[in-house]
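My main concern about presentation is that the manuscript never shows what a single data entry looks like. Each protein is reduced to its one-letter sequence and a matching series of backbone shape codes. For the editor and my fellow referees, an illustration may be useful. For illustration, here is how one protein appears when written out as sequence plus structure tokens:
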Amino acid sequence: MQDSEPTASGPGPAASGARPLLPEPLRRLAAWCVLVLLVSGVVYVGIRLCDEFRAAVVPVLLALLGTALLGPLHRRLVKAGVRRSVAAGLTCVAVVAVVGGAVYIVVAALIDTGDEIVASLRDAARGISAHFGAAGTSLDDVASNARKLLGKFGGSAASGVISGVSVVGETIAMAVLALLLVFFFLRDSDQAAGTLRALAPRGSADTLEAMARRAFHAVEGFMRGTTFIALIDSLCITVGLLVLDVPGAAGLGALVFVGAYIPYLGAFISGAVAVLVALADRGFVIALWALGIVIAVQVLEGHVLQPVIQSRTVQMHPAVVMVAITAGASVAGVLGMLLAVPLTAAAFGVLRELRSRYGEQEPPASGES
């Protein structure tokens, strides 16, 4: 009798269907919290590893962006009958020529118009000093000493460069490695799918290939669309500044082109610089006209160019873009700002592919029950 009592009382609570300690909504919330913590931990470890091996990771990322941008040119050369290796070499040579020419134009424009910009700032400071007395005189002193301050800054920068030759060498090495990787990625792009399928676990090759294609398609659309939009923005603003006779219009237009690769923030900074230069050299009325041109170009970009060019490939809310840029800047500075949006676009592409494959399987299952 004593042995039978535990067996009778033991299964009692389980058989009575005792309710769990936590209700169903709290258990789901706990599960989501655990998932978010795990994903955050994996992302953090991945970022730390990328930072430790940035000399190898950064060239790979830059090469992927370059491959996404130059892929259409390489494919056209291959369709024209050029061998893949020769087409990849010609594409890389074209990249070196275009990038080198763009850097030369930007530097030459800034050097040629630097004196005009400094002189216009000095004149503006003198005009302010005529209205505000001592406060304006101090601004005049700052403007008159601009060359001396720039000289001191240049000297300190030069000494920093001399003391950090390893950093310069590392940068050059990463640029050369990225260019070589672009060549190999373009030449062997037809073998990428087969290699990925061979490395994929059993049963997941189709899904992994689809995810990779969706991510690369998103990055490719972002790079091509951003380049086209940057070209239109820079041309419109350059023409507008030339019409207003603002000094340094070519350099400011080049700055707008480079800044367009950082969505929203780059356009805001480059447009603000153009308006300030117009204010310093041509006065308040011309500055208002320059501001109107910048706003008109931004409206054209936001309401026409962005929806038409990038809506089919990169569909991200502006808030997501701003958060990605901020996170990229906190992790890797300017380089992180440049890489944040295309990497986020790739991640969104992967999520859309997973959602299209697995998100639609739940309704039939619930309908059957």
